[in-house]
Design a protein that fits this description.
The protein has 191 residues and is mainly α. The chain has a two-stranded antiparallel ribbon with strand order 1-2. The chain is elongated and about 65 Å long. It has one domain.
Length: 191
């Protein structure tokens, strides 16, 4: 899909915008719902519990949801551009030949490789930024938290990326770069 660095960065930006919102929602409502409600027994829902505790714990402080999304976006976008996109393409090319493999199969291999790289990496970052530093630091607790997050996040990441997020982003990308895609198709027919 993306053919140059600008297009790769736009593709990564679109992917990360949707993905970070999905993961923050998943983290708050699925993984941490019971902890938030039990910490704030008067709360009737997750958002009320977050409001009652003055935000979400991150970096040893309570931060508003918008700050959490922005911080996670920055980490995810940087990681996607440095590692996720280039390494997932190389991994897919080790298994499949992009010239002879059907594009849908090759794109699926890229998505699977991206999830396989990004999920453990972002889970480690999440384990670090959400670590309860007020209790002191314990490497075993950090590793346990990281593995727990990978177990929770991997199935969610795999299925949402494969069946929802990537099809949506690829459709949006095709609309944004339709002139370039049409020019490439015309150029390909001429040769």
């Amino acid at each position: 899909m993306p053919r140059n660095q600008f297009q790769r960065m736009v593709f990564a930006f679109l992917t990360v915008v949707v993905t970070v919102h999905a993961y923050v929602f998943y983290s708050l409502y699925v993984i941490n719902r019971s902890a938030l409600i039990s910490a704030n027994p008067e709360a009737t829902g997750v958002l009320e519990a977050i409001r009652m505790q003055d935000g979400i714990y991150m970096f040893g402080h309570m931060l508003p949801i918008w700050a959490v999304i922005l911080i996670e976006f920055c980490f995810a976008y940087l990681l996607e551009n440095i590692m996720g996109c280039p390494c997932s393409f190389k991994l897919a090319c080790k298994v499949l030949d992009p010239r002879t493999t059907h594009p849908v199969i090759f794109e699926t291999a890229i998505i699977c490789a991206t999830v396989g790289l990004m999920c453990p990496s972002m889970s480690l970052i999440a384990a670090l930024i959400y670590y309860p530093y007020y209790d002191g630091f314990n490497i075993v607790a950090l590793i346990t938290s990281w593995l727990r997050l990978v177990c929770f996040n991997f199935p969610f990441a795999f299925f949402t990326q494969l069946f929802f997020i990537q099809p949506l982003i690829r459709t949006v990308f095709k609309v944004l770069f339709r002139k370039d895609i049409a020019a490439r198709a015309t150029e390909g027919q001429e040769h």
